[in-house]
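Service request form, structural biology core

Requester: graduate student, group of Dr. S.
Request type: structure prediction, single chain
Budget code: on file
Notes: please return the result as structure tokens.

Sequence provided:
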Amino acid sequence: MTSFPPFKDLSKTRILLSNDDGIAAHGLDVLERIARELTDDVWVVAPSVERSGAGHSLTIHDPLRPIQLDEKRFSVSGTPTDCVMVAINHIMKENPPDLVLSGVNSGGNMGEDVHYSGTVAAAMEAVLLGVPSMALSLTWNDVMNIPWETAEQFAPEIIRKVCAVGWARNVLINVNFPDCGPQDVKGVIPAAQGKHKLGDDMLLRHDPRGLPYLWIAGKRRGHASSPGTDLVAVEDGYVAVTPLNVDLTDAPTMAVLAQVFPPQA
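Core staff response, request fulfilled:
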């Protein structure tokens, strides 16, 4: 399996930033400060509005409109996936990024959340386009007390250490920070993707005319994960670093299917 080459000195790299919370998100400002600790060559291409939960969706029935806001800062009227695609294949085509960072997302992206997350999808699109990438997310329970300083303090060194060793070309690195101040973080550990309890909260309400409508709740209820998973690590006060493979093929099931449908001569 081929790997992305390691970066021993990130100061010589070009870094692209994106997210799913939108160009005006506070988490993107945090990510930009993180990136500028690593290199002076930082580009930002993010959705013009919040696109949380967009997953790995593409805009194919409407035009995309990149708007230049500064020399290296653009907004795009599309999804996080659109933004990374537009950045690498259009805006930065002549000199593409060496690394893509997505986030810092307001809220964790762990367990099955990674399938819905636009933050993770932006990083995934970069990998599919041949660029190493990392998604960064920060958990919180009180919107008035989000510990952004935790991500800002720990992210630069995490990025440096992971980039120094490199990783497989079909893998993105998913980082989740716990809901606590930097002084209370217990450490940084590798963690597997966890699993939430089945069943989301779905809120049934009625409009002024008495007609029913539903809100899909923003958080799943609890978790049913084992030790060593991202959900448990973050809940216990650790930063979780999880490698996610874009190849969803299940090898054991492939072996079973090979017996059911043997190779043809």
